[in-house]
């Protein structure tokens, strides 16, 4: 009976796992096929549905070296923007989190409440005024529009504050007595002690920016400056029939992120757990 | 420390004295403000100011093309409440929510229960279930477009193998929303599995031991211990799913573009269309505000639920 139950359990788990990753495996295997082959083996279920008969890198070559659709450029744009945003998010929000966790100042409770109340405001509601603001600043079609408004992470402040609060006050007192400035204490005691939550926030920010679609679609007009997600979506609606190339482009944009995730998943999942615990 | 001794010195005067911080505290206060300033400025400029601005614009007839602005009072709101397209878009969002909530919640709870106990390969299974969360929305939607394809998509292959009728989910207004829903669930369950795992790990193990001693079956344990103690987590998951559903846009943009025939146009898609295709900034912002009120009400319900939660 027990053995039967565990067989059922493993079967269910395997089926669910297959459903989870089949679309991705299919995408990757499809990107390695010549166009004619993509649909040849799709009429029935057999292993060639997933294993290319004549594997080829031609799709990747065409996608990468296509003058009209410079995918490497889109990826570089996105890496650049997401990287800068991540660094700035870490800097700006860890500073505030430190002040909220460890420093005394008048108005702290009120200011912190303001930050927390901002969590309720969905970005979709401020979409239009923020666009008008970008227009007013003259930041449309420039990376400033993607980077500067994204520098704030209220969730990040919340997350880091909890970790900073756990650092014993005695250590900070000791640093103060030794004559360390607040900035010094922050950069050489607090930050090194909280590397894991910093990685958590970094990974969440980076993946969030890698995935962002609507905002870049609205503020960036120049094709050459576009982010990878918008480029992929546009590519798949323009090249509607050339599925092997679309799959190759999707694969190129997914594999780096997947590798990053597989190495750092512990931190990413920790961040998600935190967002559930906060309530 | 100085302020404490001075407070002890004498009556009401000392309260005033203790309010005036000593030099170190003043230094700390100044530093603290410098630390908070960058993010506080960002908060004011990119969250609170736009929010106020949104409130003002929602009472205006604001067309970006002619850059005409005029105050029209509640007209935008009045028109929206009778705008069939807007109401349909809200309905589509709620349709998504109503189907996704029970299915996604139960699947993610099942997944969490399946991978909760450590055994060989748990880590692998957790990772596999979580991978769809990491796949970017645009890529997932693009790949699913092909999966749904009538002639050569794998979904229809599977249907054919089981001698079920095949269809292109996305080109039929009746089924297109279900195409979006399936993708939404596929992409979402891993995320909520993790939340449920955190909830499950918070349940004290001795409760199960006591139940086992009393001879409770696994099923009894699940309904009498696990489910009731997961109340808080479940409420969180349901509310998060609802809010995500109301804000649904990315999947729809790439998967269906709101089509066919507007069948999958969600509220945010409608706002985008009004603002950035028809340049009706005032009208779109009023719609966004209605959305905000809905999200706000749900959040307030959430806070209520959590205040009444037992632990």
UniProtKB/TrEMBL annotation, chain A:
- Which InterPro entries does the UniProt record give? MetI-like, MetI-like_sf
* Subcellular location per the Swiss-Prot or TrEMBL entry: Cell membrane
Which positions, given as ranges, span the membrane? 7-28, 74-98, 110-133, 145-164, 185-207, 246-264
Identify one Gene Ontology CC term for this UniProt entry: plasma membrane
Q: Output the Gene3D superfamilies linked to this UniProt entry.
A: MetI-like
Domain ABC transmembrane type-1 stretches: 75-264
Q: How does it sit in the membrane?
A: Multi-pass membrane protein
Q: Name one GO biological process term.
A: transmembrane transport
Q: What is its main location?
A: membrane
Q: One Pfam family, short name please?
A: BPD_transp_1
Keywords of this entry: Cell membrane, Membrane, Transmembrane, Transmembrane helix, Transport
Q: Describe the family membership recorded for this protein in Swiss-Prot or TrEMBL.
A: Belongs to the binding-protein-dependent transport system permease family.
Q: What is this protein called?
A: ABC transporter permease subunit
Q: What is the organism of origin for this protein?
A: Paenibacillus woosongensis
UniProtKB/TrEMBL annotation, chain B:
Indicate how the chain sits in the lipid bilayer. Multi-pass membrane protein
Q: Which domain of life is it from?
A: Bacteria
Q: Does the keyword Cell membrane apply?
A: yes
Please report the stretch or stretches of sequence annotated as the ABC transmembrane type-1 domain.
90-302
List the GO cellular component terms. plasma membrane
Record localization: Cell membrane
The residue ranges crossing the membrane are 32-52, 94-115, 127-148, 176-200, 281-301
Range of residues in the leader sequence: none
Q: Which GO terms describe its biological process?
A: transmembrane transport
PROSITE patterns in the record: ABC_TM1
UniProt xrefs under Pfam families: BPD_transp_1
Alphabetically ordered keywords of this record = Cell membrane, Membrane, Transmembrane, Transmembrane helix, Transport
Q: Which family does it belong to?
A: Belongs to the binding-protein-dependent transport system permease family.
This protein is called what?
Sugar ABC transporter permease
Q: Which organism is it from?
A: Paenibacillus woosongensis
